[in-house]
Specification:
The protein has about 200 residues and is mainly α. It contains 10 helices and 2 strands, in the order αααββααααααα. The protein has a two-stranded antiparallel sheet with strand order 1-2.
């Protein structure tokens, strides 16, 4: 239900904010700034409604750590990696082996040229954003199960996502996922040796 709700909210944001920006000729930088502003606004609303305290899912037995080569690893970590591989594999297949994936890549390359060859860019954008909104809900649930979340947790996750996209490239979900995995490992391993507030600096 949460995944469907998030997908619906993402559709609303695309229709009400991103599509009007695209029709006015907004470039990638302007859209990114609008996204950051929207993220901060949503975080403020969440904090206003639910408060600024920590919240977590009660799944302690599933997330108990077991020592592996000196590092704490849980069954939950295995589920996280498995889900990541399934999702990235499915996205790669759709993008590289299906007609919809061809349309998405054409749109990412040039919206104007995609429209000229008859691609319904509005439908493709809203559909892709709805799918990614659902995937982000899965990521949020896993994040909450692995620890705790606060209203402003999204700020650090946005930073990691941007770093992964820059390192892996937006054209390849596999490279981007690999970059994200490396960033997460660097942050986790670094956090074991240096204070937590400095771990993000290491990334």
């Amino acid at each position: 239900l949460a995944i469907l709700l998030d997908a619906a909210l993402t559709l609303a944001v695309v229709v009400l904010i991103y599509e009007p920006l695209a029709r006015r000729g907004a470039n990638t930088g302007m859209t990114f700034v609008a996204s950051l502003g929207l993220a901060l606004l949503i975080e403020a609303g969440v904090e206003l409604v639910f408060g600024a305290g920590n919240r977590a899912f009660s799944v302690t037995s599933f997330t108990d750590n077991h020592s592996v080569l000196g590092y704490g690893v849980s069954y939950f970590n295995g589920v996280e990696v498995a889900l990541m591989l399934v999702i990235i594999g499915a996205l790669s297949y759709v993008l590289n082996r299906t007609r919809i994936g061809f349309h998405v890549r054409a749109l990412a390359s040039s919206r104007e040229q995609a429209q000229l060859v008859g691609i319904r860019t509005g439908v493709i954008v809203t559909g892709a954003c709805a799918v990614l909104g659902g995937i982000s809900t899965i990521a949020f649930i896993l994040y909450g199960m692995s620890g705790s979340v606060i209203a402003t947790s999204g700020q650090q996750l946005i930073l990691y996502a941007v770093l992964a996209a820059l390192a892996g490239g937006v054209a390849s979900p596999i490279r981007t996922a690999g970059a994200g995995l490396v960033i997460g490992l660097v942050n986790s391993v670094g956090g074991a040796y240096i204070p937590g507030q400095w771990a993000i600096v290491l990334v």
